[in-house]
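Researcher: Sequence recovery benchmark, item below. Answer with residues only.
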């Protein structure tokens, strides 16, 4: 999907940055679309969500590999001269982007990429959580990154997306009767 986005057109640059942000932070789509430029500090590697689920504020990390894609959008966005209160991910006129538009965009990009499975923004959140787990990141860090109040919620995220590893692990076991 990422490769389907233009590297030169403003729309494509914005789409690439949004995909990277969702994939590398695990933010909810509503959280990403509510961000303002001041909420993202690529130098430090942080993104501040002012009104997360339950109207909770949290700061999450973003890895340095994501920075170039987001920086390109921030620079392009400046040339568009949006209003001062415009969200980070705004239209070319500086107006907010709706979740429905992002869902349609992801559907179109997935189709162009030859992905037949349903693709939606929340899937990037689950992928982020799974990859953190596979990298050996402690569960409390994953929980905080995702903004889950309950450990059980984080556990549910990871349990339903990891059956492949369970199957592969069991397949490697040996038994001789």
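Model:
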């Amino acid at each position: 999907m990422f490769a389907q986005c233009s590297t030169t057109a403003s729309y494509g640059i914005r789409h690439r940055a949004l995909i990277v942000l969702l994939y590398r932070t695990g933010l909810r789509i509503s959280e990403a679309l509510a961000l303002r430029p001041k909420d993202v500090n690529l130098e430090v590697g942080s993104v501040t969500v002012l009104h997360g689920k339950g109207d909770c504020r949290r700061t999450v990390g973003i890895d340095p590999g994501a920075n170039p894609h987001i920086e390109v959008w921030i620079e392009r966005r400046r040339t568009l001269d949006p209003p001062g209160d415009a969200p980070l991910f705004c239209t070319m006129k500086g107006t907010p982007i709706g979740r429905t538009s992002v869902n349609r965009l992801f559907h179109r990009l997935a189709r162009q990429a030859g992905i037949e499975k349903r693709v939606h923004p929340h899937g990037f959140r689950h992928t982020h959580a799974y990859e953190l787990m596979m990298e050996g990141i402690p569960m409390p860090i994953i929980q905080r990154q995702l903004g889950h109040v309950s450990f059980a919620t984080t556990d549910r995220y990871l349990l339903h997306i990891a059956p492949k590893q369970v199957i592969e692990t069991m397949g490697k076991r040996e038994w001789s009767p």
